[in-house]
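forwarding from the other thread:

> can someone predict this with pyridoxal-5'-phosphate?

sure thing
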Amino acid sequence: MQKLAKDTLTARGADYFEPRTGAVSVPIFQSATFRHPGQGQSTGFDYSRCANPTRTAVENTLALLEGGRYGLAFASGMGAISALVKIFKPGSHIIVSEDLYGGTYRLFTRYYEMYGFSFSYIDTSDFSCIESAYTTKTKALFIETPSNPMMKVTDIQRCADFIHSKGGILITDNTFSTPCFQNPLALGSDIVVHSGTKYLEGHNDTLSGFLVHSHDEYEQELRDAQMSEGAVLSPFDSWLTLRGIKTLSVRMEKHEANARAAAHWLRQHPKVEKVFYTGFSDHPQYELSRKQTRGDSGMVSFYVKETAFIRSILERVKLVLFAESLGGVESLITYPWEQTHTSIPEEMRLRAGVTTRLLRFSAGIENADDIIADLEQAMA
Ligand SMILES: *Cc1c(COP(=O)(O)O)cnc(C)c1O
């Protein structure tokens, strides 16, 4: 068949239909175990912690969308990241974007430091910081781009070239851009991480996490970690994620258009000091962003002029919901200082720009004028 475009791939996934019945929606194989045809024989499925057909379908779809050979599905983004650390030995040092999802920071510092790993949190959008953080123990670079919540953009290709020249690997959290807008593997990244809870599933109703890569040498280790730890995506949640992905490319267009409208509107608001949005031509890494991504996702962060405004905005929004998370059809507003990033030490939050005046907005797919009217009344 011809090479298919991204919107075809998202709409159809890896499995066009189920071969036995012709069902056009992959069935939910709600089975914990599978009958063996005979001694020493397997259908390819034995026990659902190891593999389940619905999960395999979503894993193959993610691999297809990211252009990787292998996809692994987990019960959450954190489950995926935790399994990923198992390819490294204690004593390994990992350089991490300082401006990242708070849960990733908590997992690394609170747990993996205890097991002998070390992490340096730096501004990866500034390449000189990466070079200075590198040590002979560094085995990987873990980046989020655009970063959460400050929308800093890190040069994926340059990071890949650097860490490969040192024998390490590049891991990219692609949650914000999704495979519709950015393909880190094509830019040299070794492993892509997703919180599928966000745009991929897209309806604020299901948790999931993914790893995608093309390294034969890591595949068995990652599968073993997935199976041994057991944070696997359930058949039903695999199906929900498959269903969400079918509309991913149309949703991303609307998320992007709504975020663009909100970003421009916020920028001229008298109570707003600064807006962080990758689609502004004066964003510090705008050129890089045009080069490595095809869209701006639905995320916008902004500083209000006074901390005192925060409470009234959060309590007065009606259509926009004050809640954690992002990437769903409903517009959400989050206060990173007290929510997503609260487990990061205060001094590090402030260094990254996550202050008491920062709000993060996830544009849903409602009508842009309705979203702005709601923000307008909440900020009046
Ligand atoms: C939400 C999120 C995670 C964690 O994913 P969960 O599905 O909540 O476990 C990781 N990285 C980023 C960028 C996220 O937004």
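The mean pLDDT is 97. thats all i got for now
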